[in-house]
Amino acid sequence: MSNRILMTGVGAYLPEKIITNYDLAQWVDTSDEWIKQRTGIAQRHMVADGELTSDLAINAANEALNHAGVAASDIDLIVVATTTPDDTFPSTATKVQHKLGANKAFAFDVQAVCAGFVYALSVAESMMIAQKATKALVIGAESFTKLLDWNDRGTCVLFGDGAGAVVLEAEEAPDNFGILASSLHSDGAYRDILYVDGGPSVNGEVGHVRMEGQDVFRHAVDKLASVMQEVLDQAGISADEVDWLVPHQANIRIINGMQRKFGLSSERVVRTVDKHANTSAASIPLALSQAVHDGRIQPGDLLALEAIGGGLAWGGALVRFGRP
Fold first, then answer.
1. Highest CATH level, class, for 2-173
2. With 90 as the cut, is the pLDDT of residue 215 above it?
């Protein structure tokens, strides 16, 4: 037994509005068949007018707190992973902290685009190991449709909005529970294959997503396979011991590629890309929450998490879920 960082609760929130592939085909040159064949996506959720990223985060956080049986007032760290903050400043995390009533928590945002949740999870774990916090909320939340050029069929069909959250608690537990390993990487040389063409110091505008899809796909499978092998090696665990792969939900072909590389059966991979599309930093905790709440993922299950996004930034983590 030792002090471990346990994942004790999960939660999610999706905006009510749903945009199907058939809806998109009404205003952009695309079709349901074209989108499904290339991405596996059938629909995505979209924020309502006046609905903010912080609103999504708060709803997901409340569900995660309820699931863990933890009061917001007991949380002492909040990390929000987002590329679509409410404001340039202050951080979205501070708005979440205030509205939740987590008055003793310190809070900040992490920006690593689609890899944001894995980054935020690793940052929170490190701060808890350093005894800066004992109970933490890690949230991935995005209003990603705000960044889309609705005339660009190569990007506007890919993304959606939503939020997912997890509660972390530092407790005495067996060494094979909690966060077992994590690894983070970035390489700014590939900035131009996935970026937004705006920003405060560039042109003072929010901008739109621009992507070289084939280049991103090529890097994704290789880099994700490499980082997952790193965390397996760190933990001294083989791929066949993994109960569930909970991947970033970017593209069904990337997810299937990872499944094949690690020799996992389809039944051991959580897929939500068809219903959620790519929700960037929210996609892993959204998928995780769905699989926990529908009963697939059980306490004690070993989870492999991985994601890659603009930067390029990528990472992976191994987590044995719940309490012993």
1. alpha beta
2. yes
